[in-house]
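Appendix B.2, paired examples.
Example (i):
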Amino acid sequence: RKFDNQVRFYKAEDGQSIQKFEVVPRGTQVTDLQFNSNSKSLVFCADDSSTGILNTMQDKVDCLWFDHDRNQACVCVSISQNDNLVASGSTDGTLVVRSIKDDAVIIKDR
C-alpha cells in the first residue's frame, strides 16, 4: 500500500478520482484522517508529527499543528462530535487533545 502527501476523493460508483488535495509537504505521508460532523472538513495526521484540518469546501488547509515530538510520526487522529476537540496519537504513545475553538493544547500526556 502506497501513501503520499495527498488526500483524494473518488466516486463510489466507478472509482473515478474527483478531487485531490496536497495537505502536507512532499515526502510526508498522511497516516490517518476523519471527516467532521458535517463532512465539510477533514482532520488528518502525518508521519512528520503534524495534525491539521482540511477545509474541503474551500480546498485549503485551515490549521496545521506540530504538537507531537518532531521525531515521532502522528499515526491516529479523531475529532469530537461537536467539532471542538481534536485528539491525536504518535508512535511514542503521546496523546494530544487540542481545542479548535481556543487553538490550544489542553492535554498532552504519554
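Example (ii):
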Amino acid sequence: REAHSPAQAPEVWTHLSGRATPAADFRTPPDYRLMRHPVYLGFILATWPTPDTCAGPLQFAVACSGYILMAIWFAGRDLIAQLAERYRVYREQTSILLPRVDRRHGPAQC
C-alpha cells in the first residue's frame, strides 16, 4: 500500500498536524463565471438523454439528479459559511446550472 504525501490531501494533513488551516482563496475560472456548477450540468446532460429510457437508466438519472441537487445545497451552505459576502455576491451574479449572461454587465467577475 502506497503512502500518501501531504500534498495530496493538504486540508487533512494541516488538521492532523495541528496547524491552522489557511484562508480559502475564492477564484472563478471562465466556466464558473457563467454558472456555479458547470460540472454538474455536464453530468446531468450525460445521464438524461438516453435513447432507450427504461427503468434502470431512468432510476439512475433521477438518483443522480437528486444527489446533485442536494450537493448543490450543501456546497452553497458551506461556501457561505466559509467565504461569507464574497460567495453571496457571486451567487447573486450567477445562475446555478444554466448559463446566464447579464447583457448589461457580462459574466460574473469575482
